Amino acid sequence: MKIAAKDIEELDFQELNWQLRMDLDLILDENLQLAKRINTENLINLVNAIQQAERIFLIAAGRSGFAMRSAAMRLMHLGLNVYFVGDTTTPAIKQGDLLIVASGSGTTVSMVRAAEKAISVGANVIGITTAPASDLARLANHSVIIPAAGKQELESEKSKQYAGSLFEQFLLLIMDAVFQSLWKMQQIPSDVLWARHANLE
């Protein structure tokens, strides 16, 4: 429902400010609690797979796609050959490549098909999902399970946020953690990474 200008003036801004603070605390706390529950040993295989791959392909849909695009940028900054699936310059995947697929449900048809195609040509597939029994987890060579609510678990005890928000937020965080670990291990000076940063913006 659209709020009229006069109604906005009558809003209790103190109450709204309190609500925003409470919601921000909720989001941060849910991500912190999830960070304590995640099995970081599963991320080691992801780090190793990235290091060993000839080329790295990332794919996800919706808000998860934005998180994976962010990850693709950071991996590019490390000097890796990285592609986000769906971009017009993305080449064919082949043996020796890595496909990282993120899907909260693990059943998104386009994500599952991408995993199947990658496996059929001998590429390595890592799935990131909330559902260990999903099609994606079953197909992937290795799975990273994020114990967050799926987007259709609207009344889940795992999160008070809408739909798959917690999964999407935490996906960005774990991929940043993977980047940070790779960066530290490779001991690349930050100015080397910065030299690869986009300069046509």
Verbal overview:
This protein is an alpha/beta fold. The chain is 52% helix and 11% strand. It has eight helices and five strands. It has helices at residues 5-10, 13-37, 41-52, 62-77, 109-120, 135-139, 165-186, 190-195; strands spanning 56-59, 82-84, 98-102, 124-129, 142-145. The protein has a five-stranded parallel β-sheet with strand order 2-1-3-4-5, sandwiched between helices. Helix 6 (135-139) links the parallel strand 4 and strand 5. Helix 4 (62-77) packs parallel to helix 7 (165-186). The longest helix is centred in the N-terminal third of the chain and has 25 residues, at 13-37. It is globular. It starts with a helix and ends in a 6-residue tail after the last helix. The mean pLDDT is 92.
- The low-confidence parts are none
Task: Give the SSE string.
Answer: HHHEHEEHEHEHH
**How many helices does DSSP assign?**
8
Major β-sheet annotation:
5 strands, parallel
Our Rg estimate from Cα atoms comes to 19 Å
How many E-type strands? 5
Mean pLDDT: 92
Which structural category do the helix and sheet elements fall into? alpha/beta
